[in-house]
Amino acid sequence: DDAGITDQNEPPSKRFSKFSFKDLRQFYVNNDKAGQLFIIEGKVVNNFNKPKELIEVEAQLFDDKGQVLDSKRLLCGNTLSLFQLEVQSKEEIEAGLGSKVGILSNNTLLKPGMDTPFMVVFFKPSPAVKEYVINVVDAKNPPKK
User: Fold this and answer.
1) Measured between alpha carbons, how far is residue 66 from residues 25, 38, 56, 59, 121 in Å?
2) How confident is the model at residue 144 (pLDDT cuts 50, 70, 90)?
3) What is the structure's pLDDT at 19?
4) Where are the beta strands (DSSP E) in 4-141?
5) CB-side exposure of 114: number of CA atoms within 13 Å?
């Protein structure tokens, strides 16, 4: 169906409401070079009835008054091991999470029901962080063959 034109006018929260999250978890890691890291990881599941790809998420950190302390967007597809999170530099971590290879192998042509992993890393998070919200903010339809 090519009713994609109307989709663009809907807010992302509605347009991407058929994505769901699973295996969500949050944790802190002490990194040798970059200090404390706050990590949110999980998987985005495609519940649309057609393939999707290049799914992008945004994570927002809030304090106890609901103020946004920090936010970060990234394309899904990459995760790092706990060891990498502990020893790699900020640049290496960001390069790993932005790796085109992971995005192309894990975040393209996701058939209905398939999922793609993601990991959002916040460097030196504010001690005021009380909660986080994660949303899908972008996704593409695979090019028609």
Assistant:
1) 20, 18, 23, 14, 20
2) confident
3) 96
4) 19-31, 35-46, 53-62, 68-75, 115-123, 131-140
5) 16
């028609």: which residue's tokens?
144
Q: Which two tokens stand for residue 18?
A: 């058929």
pLDDT attached to residue 94? 97
Amino acid occupying residue 100 = K
The rounded percent of the chain whose pLDDT value lies above 70 is 92
Pair 6, 31: CB distance under 8 Å: no
Q: Which of 68, 76, 80 shows the shortest CA–CA distance to 37?
A: 80
Q: Residue 13, Cβ neighbours under 10 Å: how many?
A: 10
Q: Hey, which residues does 135 pair with through a beta bridge?
A: 58
Which of the 8 DSSP states describes residue 98? T
Residue type, 1: D
Tell me whether residue 41 is exposed, middle or buried, using C-beta atoms within 10 angstroms of its C-beta: 0 to 12, 13 to 18, 19 or more: middle
Q: Is the pLDDT of residue 7 over 90?
A: no
**Per-residue tokens: 49:** 């009835």
Distance CA 138, CA 62 (A): 21
